[in-house]
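fyi for ur records
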Amino acid sequence: MDLLISAVELLARWDVIAALLVGSIGGVTIGAIPGVGPAVAIAILLPATFSLDPIVGLTVLLGIYGSSMYGGAIPAILINTPGTAVNALTTYDGHPIAAGGNPRRALSLAFSASFFGGIFSIICLIFLAQLLAVIAPHFGSREIFLAALLGIVLVVLAHTRQVFAAGMLASFGVFLNSVGLEPVRYTRRFTFEQTWLASGIDLIVVVLGLFALSQAFLLLVQKDEQPKLVEVKGGLLEGMKELLGHKRVASASASFGVVMGMIPGVGEFIAQFLSYTYAQKTSKTPEKFGSGAPEGLIASEAANNAVPGAAMIPLLALGIPGEALTAMMLSVFYVHNVIPGPQLFATQMDFVIALYIALLLLNVIVLVFLVSSTRGLLHVVRIPTRFLGVIILMLGFVGVYSLRNSMTDCAIAAGFGVFGLVLKRLSLPVVPIVLGMVLGGIMEVKLRSAMAQVKTPLDFIDRPIAAIIFGLIVLIIALYIRSYFKRSRATAHTKNP
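which gave:
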């Protein structure tokens, strides 16, 4: 009870409440603007959060992360253009319902399913993070090294058709993390006698370049667009009643979101695919999917909104981010010397409970805001894309320069912005680079610590948890190789029947 009171006191400050409102409402607004998305917004805001209290900074970022997908459903349903990338599946059934004369019903269903998925994942976070924190003290340097390695393997293999490219980009991220002074003997690595490389390549500079500046460049080179909207009339709470008629689909989809959110490198896309496939396979009217099935819309929105809460489980319990947005949040923890893991639960449990309450509150705030303000929010969708590009470019460079007042950082960010634009034009993933930098740093530190106790390679897996994680790595790689050869044989058979 004392911890709960202490957590409420942490949140009952004007700056935390303001951060909660700004993050949740700002996240919905950003999500509703096609072409921006939470990664761009978090990348721009990240430097500013370093000067705030950790609870304030994290509340803003969590608000944007947890609420952007609510807003992303609005353009996906009304103009068949997803506000964020993970709302792409929402267009399959959401837009046909809206185009059929029921935009209010489609939006109401999407908001209700999103709210259910968000609350479901937070309840799982409260219980599973506690459980994982109990197990986590048994994780030594070897176990954390192997867990980070498992994360990289999963990130790479999650890009099923682009495994080689994802592996190269993740390795490039690991390499970027090694530039500069190494952390033990402080010798220079890969600096080529350039003094500006001695301090290394900052993660936040790379993040701002790859996400914010590259998106700005993309919006600037594309044709300027200003979409037309469908008018929405009537209340938006009726979806709650309809959702109760599809409890099985909503629960299963939210469960897929939680499981996929906990696994590094998997996230919303696989969760949506699995939940949508499950909903279609178990539906009495599978032929309606893709042309206005309410179960399809519920499956998509419940799954993608269940991921953010679940992604916080490995971050809080083990200090291992599951994807790019939680990797950005990890930097906020480190800047304020708040180290995620078992020690956080032992010494700052009130802080952890405050984060749980903040996540619950932001879902409530978002639902109330959407029900009361969706019609006003529709005007945000119509902002010209090139104007957006200029604003993102300006804010991105301001954010980079504010880190260390360095024009060199601005030049590096611009370089990564161009690199990110090239990757997007080639439809190659950007996320493996960021996770390679974060997980590569964890792997290096833990490997150095473990080597003092390791005499042979087998000593790495002489403890139960280490052996289990190593077994998982081998099993996952073996299963991927098996599926790859099966696909190759099927392709060869199709070409030469």
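The first strand starts at residue 180 and ends at 181. thats all i got for now
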